[in-house]
């Protein structure tokens, strides 16, 4: 049988996207936690998966409200990821955010999804949440990823030359 350490060490080598999953309490107080267990599940209908530890306060709010938000973080947002990974009372203090689709949304996150919980699946010490995406917006940005116990980005994307928007507009006029 594989040990906890062997499994953690192996999984450390698997790069994962970094997100902040959010939910609102009944009194509208925002709550959020850093999550790297996030993935696309389906295109039709648009669905994602998020895994949360059973002891997560955010998980309890999601199960009660049947809704959650996913803020997909960008390359230079490791401080934001660390803020929401801490066990602080108010992780939103000093963080620009607003309510979007009834959920806390981090203003500086390049990606945002509002989801309706369709199913919670047992998964050891976590629950795997299946969410139907009801709203999405994104801006093109290098993603924040976590691998080998450190934050980074997709280096090829970060180095890729980008054409100015005026070049794209001019190309459409031709």
TrEMBL record:
<dbReference type="InterPro" id="IPR002563">
    <property type="entry name" value="Flavin_Rdtase-like_dom"/>
</dbReference>
<dbReference type="GO" id="GO:0016491">
    <property type="term" value="F:oxidoreductase activity"/>
</dbReference>
<feature type="domain" description="Flavin reductase like">
    <location>
        <begin position="11"/>
        <end position="153"/>
    </location>
</feature>
<dbReference type="Pfam" id="PF01613">
    <property type="entry name" value="Flavin_Reduct"/>
</dbReference>
<protein>
    <submittedName>
        <fullName>Flavin reductase family protein</fullName>
        <ecNumber>1.5.1.-</ecNumber>
    </submittedName>
</protein>
<dbReference type="InterPro" id="IPR050268">
    <property type="entry name" value="NADH-dep_flavin_reductase"/>
</dbReference>
<keyword id="KW-0560">Oxidoreductase</keyword>
């Amino acid at each position: 049988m594989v040990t906890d350490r062997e499994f953690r060490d192996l999984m450390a080598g698997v790069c994962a996207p970094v997100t902040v999953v959010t939910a609102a309490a009944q009194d509208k107080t925002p709550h959020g936690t850093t999550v790297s267990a996030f993935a696309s599940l389906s295109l039709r209908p648009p669905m994602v998966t998020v895994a949360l530890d059973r002891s997560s306060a955010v998980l309890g709010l999601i199960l009660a409200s049947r809704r959650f938000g996913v803020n997909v973080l960008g390359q230079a947002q490791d401080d934001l990821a660390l803020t929401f990974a801490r066990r602080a009372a108010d992780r939103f203090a000093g963080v620009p955010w607003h309510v979007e689709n009834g959920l806390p949304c981090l203003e500086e996150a390049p990606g945002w999804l509002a989801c309706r919980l369709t199913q919670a699946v047992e998964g050891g010490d976590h629950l795997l949440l299946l969410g139907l995406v009801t709203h999405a917006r994104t801006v093109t940005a290098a993603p924040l990823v976590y691998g080998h116990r450190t934050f980074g980005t997709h280096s090829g994307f970060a180095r890729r030359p980008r054409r100015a928007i005026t070049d794209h507009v001019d190309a459409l006029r031709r």
